[in-house]
Write the structure tokens for this entry.
Amino acid sequence: MATHKLLLLPGDGIGLETMAEVERIIAFFNAKANAGKFEIERDDVGGTAIDKHGVPVTDAAMAKAKASTAVIFGAVGGPKWDKVPYAIRPEAGLLRLRKELDLFANLRPAICYPALADASSLKREIVEGLDILILRELTGGTYFGEPKEIVTLENGEKRAVDSTVYTTREIERIAKVAFDLARKRGNKVHSAEKRNVMKTGVLWNEVVTATHKSYAPDVQLEHILADNCAMQLIRNPKQFDVIVTDNLFGDVLSDEAAMMTGSLGMLPSASLGAPDAKTGKRLALYEPVHGSAPDIAGKGLANPIATIASFGMALRYSCDMVREADLLDKAIADVLAQGLRTGDIMQPNMRQVGTAEMGSAILKQLETVAA
Ligand code: NAD
């Protein structure tokens, strides 16, 4: 049986509370599941690490992260650390992890649990049962390309430049991630770019097409212009399975897709690095989209589902425990269907619960569905 090394970095604020619920789920799988076992390490990140070690992530924690199958990250930041020097602010810990693990592929699922369909701004029939994945290239493109500057012209006017830059290698590696992910889901990839007006779009289209031919002819591939993709996400989002796109379009499309499904407290994410040359395993970090929520931290009110579902993504994408990931997703859906809600997703006639009670209900339902 495979043993998976997990590094838990709860961080600050509600990260501590939501990670405690993940630990209970891990203990359940360690006791029951026969597909894999987890070895747990814990460390500090963010403000908590600044208080203890003077830096937002230590070299020792970085070494553990590099040796792990997956890092499960809570959240960092809070008013207590607003005045620390910029270089060692809490977020710098997360940025160091992303940079040194070379996490170039960002996965943001948009799942609409039937029980929450009425909370979406779209009609129930459009979003109910939605399960799509936006794959965003995270380390290249418009946010990092050079030149990137504001210059003053001779006539005193200013001129700003951002450069969108992609190489064959960068496009090929994100395309391969898209095809690998699609094989574990609905086997369909939409590649979104603007080949009609951008040279990077032309190259993106060419490289994705060539990679499909050589690497994944078994996966269905469609090309779509990024602006049309934005429209289709609202018109008929269920036509999509995996959408792969660049850094800039991915930033916008992933927020658009996520918000169809409701609260920040429900949104997991993952960031993957390059595969190891020997083992083929990718370094990976899984985290909720939300922050440390200082306004509710320490009160037992936080919704733990985004962090629990982030762990579910680790099961699926780093541990090859797809059945367990499905069971966990089902347990979450069932608990929502039973009418339990944390404050952020509260609806009329539902029962409001806190962090630990929501965690307990998911655990109990997991025991039932896994029996
Ligand atoms: P936030 O995501 O922490 O909170 C925004 C709002 O959503 C708050 O009202 C909060 O109570 C609510 N909320 C968020 N997650 C929730 C959950 N799981 N359950 C219930 N309600 C939830 O964003 P913010 O308030 O802009 O930032 C707070 C701190 O977090 C800042 O220091 C910020 O820099 C940091 N931050 C960290 C990350 C990260 O660690 N990846 C991401 C975003 C913000």
Q: What stands out?
A: The two ends are 20 Å apart (CA to CA).
